[in-house]
Amino acid sequence: MNRLIIDLNALRHNLDKIGSWMDKCNAKWTVVTKVLCGHVDTLKALQVMGVRSIGDSRLMNLRAVERIVPDLESWYLRLPHLSAIEEIVSLADVSLNSEIETIIALNEVAKRQDKIHRIIIMIELGDLREGILPGGLIRFYEHVFNLSNIEVLGIGTNVGCLAGVVPNIDQFAQLVLYRELLELKFKHKLPLISAGSSIVLPLTLEGRLPRAVNHFRIGESIFLGSNLVDGGTLEGLRDDVVVLEGEIAEIKEKSLVPSGETSSITSGTTAAKEEYSPCQRGYRALVAIGQLDTGTTGIIPMDDRYHIAGSSSDITVVNLGDNPEGLTIGDSVRFKLNYAALLHLMSGKYINKETRPGLVEFSASLASINDTEVAPVLDGVTD
């Protein structure tokens, strides 16, 4: 059977480890769950683990969060769009913003819903994603900081998410100065600098991130253990929280080099060419996972002796080497995933998703543990 396995014990390990890093730098943090695509059992497991602050970029997922775990603090991480303002205010406690018109609309809807909606003002610092230009920050803040139903929690940024800009100390030092400038000019405290993310964790571990950066939004490193600066896995994290199991539909010894002239007419993908002689043979497993299921360039066999030869819409071909070591049809090949492949799998309908252990067993194992792993960010920082 093809299935995506979410190891709840490995997930708890990564939450514990990242939580200890946040404690050392006295920072608050929010678990970014958009990669889960509203997966019910994993969201419930996060609640059992003590997660009380969740961020997502899809309103459908936030609706799932409200239905499944209604006591969680929720952050809307995609820039609010005018056609969805009503639901954003209804579902999210906090949103990230860079347009005055949008914030005014959020204020009007918050009035009607009798709510205070909190915002982070996003600043562009080089990655060319969302954010106002620093030169317009004071004028921007003048327009929004006195709105009746909007509370500005602070400023923030995204780095490394679009153009691949590697975070540096100067960027964060700028944010600290911008907050000081706003607080001095407007005589109003801004409790948060929300600029931490998975790609910022290496700077944090090196002790180089300014301590004034006190809020992190972390997703990928929780679920994949990723070191997004140097590659590989961050020290102390597990990279097996989510594993793909693909069922073998065919296994045969074949030539490792195609016969006949090749061209680009195929709709499949071929992995980087390996050096095989024309007569070289080996065992090839056809796994029943293809491009309809995920981006197959983002799946990596966990056994480093195996190599992906290519894929089509329906199957992926794995070179097993000279000896299949007892593998037969019906057995599985296990794969690690990159973030894009995991997103594709979680949002798709073709692959079963399951947690191990099951939610009931996992919850029972934590019944005597009452520690809150990820406390609500708004506790102690809101008016």
Automatic annotation (TrEMBL):
Keywords assigned by UniProt, alphabetized: Isomerase, Pyridoxal phosphate
Domain of life: Bacteria
Names of required cofactors: pyridoxal 5'-phosphate
One of the record's GO molecular function terms: pyridoxal phosphate binding
Pfam hit, one: Ala_racemase_N
InterPro entries on file: Ala_racemase (IPR000821), Ala_racemase_N (IPR001608), PLP-binding_barrel (IPR029066)
The keyword Isomerase appears for this protein: yes
Domain Alanine racemase N-terminal: 6-225
GO cellular component: cytosol
Name of this chain's protein: Alanine racemase N-terminal domain-containing protein
